[in-house]
Amino acid sequence: xxxxxxxxxxxxxxxxxxxxxxxxxxxxxxxxxxxxxxxxxxxxxxxxxxxxxxxxxxxxxxxxxxxxxxxxxxxxxxxxxxxxxxxxxxxxxxxxxxxxxxxxxxxxxxxxxxxxxxxxxxxxxxxxxxxxxxxxxxxxxxxxxxxxxxxxxxxxxxxxxxxxxxxxxxxxxxxxxxxxxxxxxxxxxxxxxxxxxxxxxxxxxxxxxxxxxxxxxxxxxxxxxxxxxxxxxxxxxxxxxxxxxxxxxxxxxxxxxxxxxxxxxxxxxxxxxxxxxxxxxxxxx
Length: 285
Ligand code: C2E
Ligand code: MG
Ligand code: MG
Ligand code: MG
Hints:
- By secondary structure, the chain is of the alpha/beta class.
- It contains eleven helices and nine strands.
- The N and C termini lie far apart (67 Å).
- A hairpin with a 4-residue loop joins strand 1 (40-49) and strand 2.
- The chain is globular.
- It has an eight-stranded mixed barrel with strand order 1-2-4-5-6-7-8-9, surrounded by five helices.
- Helix content is 48%, strand content 18%.
- The model has no long low-confidence stretch (mean pLDDT 90).
- The structure holds ligand C2E and magnesium ion (3 copies).
- Residues 177, 199-200, 233 line the site of one magnesium ion (MG).
């Protein structure tokens, strides 16, 4: 009897596996086509100067407007894109679209100060180098920046020289999700980082959370001594803003200010949150 049940569950398992594999193949094919069909979109989340509430730039966050499943978050397709090599064309699309949008904003007199940060994953960096879609040949407009995580720097050692070369050309690098990896300080020491993005997990427990408070204060002190900028990620309450501001943090991002929004809404946000002293060039973050 047990043998019988075992056989049935094995068949079920096979059937489920089969369905999962088919679904994956289908999604892979759809994603491949999505890039050419214009189904990818960028949303933009404001980076806010905490001392005056002005908008100094945005982070570009990719979404997939799927014809049936609706607007999909990166967590639903970036992993698949990385496993299938599609991350190289997807990433180049993000870079091109981000650069195009930033140039368009810069044409508008009152938006000439904006910067734009684009995320680059380790797999993407490696795949991009392998397929010769060389980042170094990309025409970065002033104000365009790249965000990498510690794992990007660790996972793609053979491709990291590309980032160093870009940095020498003046493209600023931010270290995303700072503090969540195992090599945060080593990364700061070895790579030309200009901005630390303090991970949301340190911000969420504030204003209480004495340990997190100590960590945030230490990172801000470190950054001050190394001449790095710090952006607090995931600010959701005025109390969190007050806490990080008191500790000397000058930049932040989070739902309190704005969720990631369309390009049009982003431009409106920037126009209604202008710099106090007019600026005509992007402030390097
Ligand atoms: P990330 O670069 O750390 O981006 C921040 C994520 O936190 C975004 O999620 C954003 O919507 C979310 N977030 C911002 N403020 C708040 C807040 O106050 N509270 C909470 N709970 N969340 C907040 P999203 O857009 O789903 O992106 C997730 C991740 O996907 C990104 O994390 C980034 O690692 C990756 N990603 C997004 N776009 C791209 C891309 O174009 N290329 C690559 N390689 N990765 C991307
Ligand atoms: Mg990011
Ligand atoms: Mg982040
Ligand atoms: Mg994060």
